[in-house]
Amino acid sequence: MSKISLFSKIKNFIHSDAFIFLLPAFILIIVFYLIPIIVSVYMSFTPLKNWNIARYIHEFVGFENYWRFFYMVTHDPTVEPIFITTIVFILITLAINVLGGLGLAIATFFMGEREASSTQLLWLLPRMTPIAVYSMIWYYFFHGSAIGTLNSIMMSLGIIHEPIDWGQSIIPWGPWMIIIFVNGLVGVSYGMIVFTSAISNIPKELVIAARVDGASNWSITKNILIPLLKWHIVYVTTWQMLSLLTTYDHIFLLVEWGLVNRYYGTTWALYIYNMAFTAAEKDLGLAAAAGVILVIVGAILGLLALKILGFEKMVKEPRGDI
Fold first, then answer.
1. CA–CA gap between residue 239 and residue 26 (Å, rounded)
2. How far apart are alpha carbons 142 and 174 in whole angstroms?
């Protein structure tokens, strides 16, 4: 009976207006998320190398690529820094993205309209700037010679007397500092957009009433804004965590240009990309296995984040009548 009921619900949903409305999103998810995952899973069971699809795509090696990956993780000394970098990068950058975006949204809420617009536009520049241009700016800012902006400023102020190769000589915190800073600015702007949009939909009467009662900006933030932003905090935290787990574009350029150390500046996602596209022998089967494991880890972390942030409590029906 339950199966028939479920089938009826699915059938009714397919014939509803809601399905038509959501169909474009379903198509995008299938094309850009579901199909790539299926292809990656298939590739992970093949010995595919150097994009020689005709030769390897019909051969199957079972779980050999997965065993090879776990062996590398436990025995290859060059892999350990990559996983440490991934953990440090995600934790610190995630905190910057969520707290920074929330802080900016709340700060601009209490500004005048002109000042708020100017501040938001300034913080949106990293997101609007092309990846190569944005990375080049920070390449010269953190450059390890006297032409580097940071070195030049510190030398002119007498703080240092010789240029510091931030991304190569101060291991591991130098490269960590650079990749966290560069990616943190982009992530802060995303959080700011989401939180600003959410705050703009909070009834102004609540803030006006609080002002009449003499509430300070901090009281309004603590008692009105943050409690009403809990859904958005959960969303931004979970989304940004999964995004950071799979990001590699800015980091790839900074590593390739020699600004940051190759091992302590490489994340798991970049490691997979290099294995599939830039290594001398492009081991796509192994890269696919590492990618599948990354997807599984991402799914687990996403569910844990929702659990820790109390998503289940927020979706429960309220007790009593309202």
1. 18
2. 10
CA distances (Å), origin 33, targets 4, 39, 163, 298: 30, 10, 45, 13
Tell me the mean pLDDT per 10 residues along the chain, length 322: 61 71 85 88 92 86 93 88 94 95 92 87 87 93 92 92 91 94 91 91 88 88 90 91 91 94 93 89 91 92 86 64 49
What kind and span of H or E run contains 99? helix 80-109
CA atoms within 13 A on the CB side of 26: 7
> Amino acid identity of 225?
L
Class of the CATH domain delimited by 33-315: mainly alpha
Q: How far is CA 275 from the centre of its chain?
A: 21
Which residues, including other chains, have CB under 8 Å from residue 252's CB and lie 6 or more apart? 270, 273
Contact 169, 144 (CB under 8 A): yes
Q: Amino acid identity, residue 257? A: W
Place of tokens 């902006």: 149
Cβ-based neighbours of 297, under 8 Å, separated by 6 or more = 245
Do 59 and 47 form a contact (C-beta atoms < 8 A)? yes
* Residue at token pair 């900016």: 104
User: Are the C-beta atoms of 109 and 221 separated by less than 8 Å?
Assistant: no
| Tens-digit pLDDT profile for residues 170-214 | 889 999 999 999 999 888 988 999 999 999 888 888 888 888 888
Longest alpha-carbon distance in the chain: 79
Q: How far is CA 168 from CA 38, 60, 82, 108, 174, in A?
A: 38, 41, 15, 38, 7
